[in-house]
């Protein structure tokens, strides 16, 4: 009897292990693997600094803030210290703080970074809920940083490297503009981040989802890359605008859109990494980080359960210029001619627009390589320049969404 029980237990454990192994996403090999195991991070201390002599306050007590220290340098200058969550890290110093004063006055804020980093982003300012770029005459060079001249008063002003779109801001956007008025948009969750924040998914289709080819849209793997998020927003808004084109498209295709893949890094004000100190867009191989593992699991399980082939993946980012990073291998993918046709259409549909493409097969474990090697699908990293005007971003986002829908419908 005991022997039977022993072998029954062994068999049940073996079956459980097989079932767990079957539910885990398939790992994808890359030529140059990267260690994406957890790394220590330095948390900024959340506080409001008050400089009594000036009557000025500076704070980082809000989601998306980045301010590591502050001190008064002279009778009109406050030096602000900004440091990354850990190193090594890209040279993209992010900052975000709020300031106000007891009475109106002009104050100079000196930005200071660690020795190996240089200033990148032009300061943006939010007053009374509206964002604008700070006038260049009020921004002066200072070593490797900048000095910002600002009139302050009792009304708090938020200064940041890029417009802040926290996880709550993103939630308000997709609830108001995507989910609430469209019954064909199904709000789902891919699970939680390392710190327990939700990873939302916008599952978009009309009718029965079974058998529909799947398009995947990703953004905010890197927290400060907000211009890419703006393009993502317009891209998604165009898909759900209830036009004849979008109605036909969602009747034949399914879209899985991830509006914030790194909510921890976004809300913590990180320069690039998640709360485990890892670049998520280097983890698309072994999925050591929960955000990528959950996203990959959701995509692959959805594809398997509803028998929908993954045909295209677009990952929205920001960099110094507008550029599309593509894979050279195309003939064996789901859509071998899509990239060339899509880019031709964009140059035709957008006035004075020239596609900037950089093609190379992914050697590092990034998302566009995962789509190619793991799914046999077209993968594209869709980059928007840091300084691309917002009106132009929205124009490109809309035109690229329309062109994608038209081209994919031609394939059906």
- CATH class descriptor name of the largest domain: Alpha Beta
Instruction: Give the strand order of the largest sheet, numbering strands 1, 2, ... along the chain.
Output: 12-13-15-14-16-19-17-18
The number of helices is: 9
What string gives the helices and strands in order?
HEEEEEEEEEEEHEEEHHEHHEEHEHEH
Features:
alpha+beta; 2 domains; Immunoglobulin-like; eight-stranded mixed beta sheet; Aminopeptidase; six-stranded antiparallel beta sheet; 9 helices; single chain; 30% helix
Walk me through what this model shows.
With 412 residues, the protein is α+β, with helices and mostly antiparallel strands. It has two domains: 113 residues, Immunoglobulin-like, CATH 2.60.40.3120; 245 residues, Aminopeptidase (3-Layer(aba) Sandwich), CATH 3.40.630. It is 30% helix and 26% strand. A hairpin with a 4-residue loop joins strand 1 and strand 2. Helix 3 crosses helix 9 and helix 4 packs across helix 9. The longest helix is centred in the N-terminal third of the chain and has 22 residues. 43% of the residues are buried.
């Amino acid at each position: 009897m005991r022997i039977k029980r022993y072998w029954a237990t062994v068999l049940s454990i073996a079956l459980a292990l097989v079932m767990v192994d079957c539910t885990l996403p398939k790992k994808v090999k890359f030529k140059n693997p990267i260690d994406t195991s957890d790394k220590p991070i330095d948390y900024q201390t959340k506080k409001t600094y008050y400089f009594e002599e000036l009557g000025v306050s500076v704070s980082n007590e809000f989601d998306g803030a980045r301010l590591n220290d502050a001190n008064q340098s002279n009778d009109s200058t406050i030096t602000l210290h900004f440091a990354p969550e850990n190193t090594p890290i890209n040279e993209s110093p992010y900052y975000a703080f709020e300031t106000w004063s007891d009475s109106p006055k002009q104050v100079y804020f000196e930005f200071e970074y660690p020795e190996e980093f240089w200033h990148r982003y032009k300061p943006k300012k939010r007053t009374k809920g509206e964002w604008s770029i700070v006038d260049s005459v009020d921004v002066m060079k200072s070593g490797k940083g900048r000095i910002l001249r600002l009139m302050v008063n009792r009304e708090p002003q938020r200064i940041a490297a890029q417009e802040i779109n926290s996880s709550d801001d993103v939630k308000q956007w997709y609830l108001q503009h995507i989910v609430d008025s469209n019954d064909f948009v199904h709000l789902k969750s891919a699970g939680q981040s390392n710190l327990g924040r939700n990873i939302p998914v916008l599952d978009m289709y009309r009718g029965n989802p079974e058998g529909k080819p799947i398009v995947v849209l990703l953004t905010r793997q890197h927290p400060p890359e907000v211009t890419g998020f703006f393009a993502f927003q317009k891209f998604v808004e165009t898909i759900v605008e209830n036009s004849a084109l979008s109605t036909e498209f969602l009747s034949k295709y399914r879209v899985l859109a991830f509006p914030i893949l790194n909510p921890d890094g976004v809300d913590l004000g990180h320069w690039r990494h998640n709360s485990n100190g890892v670049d998520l867009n280097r983890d698309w191989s072994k999925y050591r980080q929960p955000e990528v593992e959950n996203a990959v699991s959701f995509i692959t399980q959805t594809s398997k359960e509803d028998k929908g082939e993954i045909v295209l993946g677009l990952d929205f980012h920001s960099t110094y210029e507008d550029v599309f990073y593509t894979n050279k291998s195309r003939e064996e993918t789901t859509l071998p001619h899509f990239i060339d046709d899509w880019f031709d259409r964009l140059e035709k549909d957008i006035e004075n627009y020239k596609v900037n493409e950089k093609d190379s097969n992914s050697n590092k474990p990034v998302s566009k390589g995962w789509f190619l090697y793991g799914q046999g699908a077209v993968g594209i990293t869709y980059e928007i320049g840091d300084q691309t005007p917002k009106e132009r971003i929205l124009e490109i986002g809309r035109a690229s969404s329309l062109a994608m829908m038209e081209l994919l419908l031609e394939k059906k």
